[in-house]
Amino acid sequence: MKKILITGADGQLGFELQRSLPAGFECLATDKDALDITDAQAVNTYVDEHKPDVIINAAAYTAVDKAEEETELAIAINTTGAKNLAQAAKDKAIKLVQISTDFVFDGKACSPYTVDAITDPDGYYGKTKRDGDNLVVDILGDEALIIRTSWLYSSHGNNFVKTMLRFMLEREELGIIADQIGTPTWANSLANAVWKSIELDTTGFHHWSDAGVASWYDFAYAIMEEGVSLGLLDKEITINPITTADYPTPASRPCYSVLDKTVTWKALGLKSDHWRVALRKMMKELKAK
């Protein structure tokens, strides 16, 4: 029975990893109260006591706008935390799966970012994640595994899908950004890719998101259509496309952050569902709840 340590277990990916745990694995699910990854001694003590075979670092500071002010906290979790886990993994010969983000890229591309594309994040969230990834590679070398993903959502926790459904029940009209392009990703899809990566002992940089591309406007419109179809919404409302300039935020977002999954699909022998297919599956779960 292999032991899997999951950090950030109370998050969307942590939830999906736990419910899709393969046979033959014991799950050590930790949140920030159970394991403070910013504390190197706490990490070493936990690893020494529980002796996991694999660590999945799904913990992250993801408040993109707040990271512009709470920089030290973002660094502590996204950069120092990743470093502490990587060092413990190296010292104890444990496999580490580091979960990363499309925000490590500059968002100025016009074609999907490959796994070896240059990282040049604009905001502090992306910078702290990029720096954490780099430290993992510095410490673990060729044994490092970093999986970047994008626009994550789940039936668990807070996310764009659930926020849109709430707004669509409360309002008659919404303005949604149409000039930021990426790919929505069901956290269940990512969890399955993580488990396959562990099974195959994959290493290096990899990308996983669902298939296809969308703007936030496209994503919101699809949520409305699926919501009405499933009876989660009683009617369609007006959704207006707006620009990034119409909705300024403290942190800038990538205008284009589509990830090229070719390398990962080949390595894992898996392909993602189209994001609309995945969205429908997740929203059926919401209805069942």
UniProtKB/TrEMBL annotation:
Biological process per Gene Ontology, one example term: dTDP-rhamnose biosynthetic process
Reaction it catalyzes: dTDP-beta-L-rhamnose + NADP(+) = dTDP-4-dehydro-beta-L-rhamnose + NADPH + H(+)
Signal peptide: none
A Gene Ontology cellular-component term: cytosol
The protein's Enzyme Commission number: 1.1.1.133
Taxonomic superkingdom: Bacteria
Residue ranges constituting the RmlD-like substrate binding domain according to the UniProt record: 3-286
Pathways involved: Carbohydrate biosynthesis; dTDP-L-rhamnose biosynthesis
SUPFAM superfamilies assigned to the protein according to its UniProt record, in alphabetical order: NAD(P)-binding Rossmann-fold domains
Pfam families: RmlD_sub_bind
InterPro entries per record: dTDP_dehydrorham_reduct (IPR005913), NAD(P)-bd_dom_sf (IPR036291), RmlD-like-bd (IPR029903)
Co-factor binding details: Binds 1 Mg(2+) ion per monomer.
Keyword NADP included in the entry's annotation: yes
Family as reported in the entry's similarity comment: Belongs to the dTDP-4-dehydrorhamnose reductase family.
Known role: Catalyzes the reduction of dTDP-6-deoxy-L-lyxo-4-hexulose to yield dTDP-L-rhamnose.
UniProt name for this protein: dTDP-4-dehydrorhamnose reductase
Annotated source species: Cocleimonas flava
